[in-house]
Specification:
The structure is a single chain. This protein is an alpha/beta fold. It is 34% helix and 19% strand. The strands form 3 sheets. It has an 8-stranded parallel beta barrel, surrounded by 6 helices. It has a 3-stranded antiparallel sheet with strand order 8-9-10, with no helix packed on it. It has a two-stranded antiparallel sheet with strand order 11-12. α1 runs parallel beside α10, α3 crosses α4 and α10 runs antiparallel to α11. The protein is globular, with a radius of gyration of 20 Å.
Length: 340
Amino acid sequence: MSASATVPMKLVCPAGNLPAMLAALESGADAVYAGFQDQSNARAFPGLNFSEAELRTGIAAAHARGRQVYLALNTYPDDARMPAWQARVDRAAELGADAIIAADMALLDYAARTHPQLARHLSVQASATTAAALRYAYERVGIARAVLPRVLSIQQVERLCDTSPVALEVFAFGSLCIMVEGRCQLSSYLTGASPNCQGVCSPPAFVRWDERADGSREVRLNGVLIDRFGSDEPAGYPTVCKGRYRVGEAVFHALEEPTSLNTMELIPRLAQAGVAALKIEGRQRGAAYVRQVTASWRQALDRYAGDPQHWRLQDGWRDTLAAHAEGRQTTLGPYHRGWH
């Protein structure tokens, strides 16, 4: 379903709270994605996400600007919890959300049967990487869009754009995951809790911070030391994959260095392929991150739409994104790998 390159790609931005949502809308997001304050979404951190009253306010603000709001219901409920997830679909429809983002086929089927007017987007958590998988979801539950996993090369994305029956959304900026889009066996191994069901890597109940006499801090997950930070060293939310470990005589990021995906230089190629939307990761980040990252991407996309033949990546955009990247490092990730 390759779209014409003349159709501008939509910019889909994160909102972990109402100030972040308003920042995204004010900075040029075409759509914002958010979650309820429970485990129905894959960013179920304490203090994050929206009450129904906040969602009502945010959706009204978005619609007043002609923008959209998508609600993430992208974790996997078991039989006992399915009614609660279905109730969240009902509330999304009642609140006026423009789409839900879901991975569980039973939940998508429920949404298709009970709220056919509510658009259904296939979450990245569904790990649909082939035209056949996309076609199945389209034919069975009527998805309108699919978010592709961050494991595909640019050539694979281009081929899917040519064969997909639905519009495609790809991640453009933000954290990477070395697992199959959040299906973290490392976290499950240490805690016994599945991120795909609980809604968060490193569930807070298992995280413990300890201050040391020299001012440094240690962080453990279920008793296992995964990192130690100096007194003046910034510390992000602890995850097993981005911890530092002793391997032989050295201590380093043995599994994954903190770094962020940044595909801005690929805007022309993604647009020409027919990608429908670019997604910014970061519902766990603050309003300043959302505002500045959204503004940079809005400027870049508008500049491309206005004069694609002479579009060039600007240093100011690159510097802003690097400042908000994990470890102040960026990568093209799997997009630029040699094999595909």
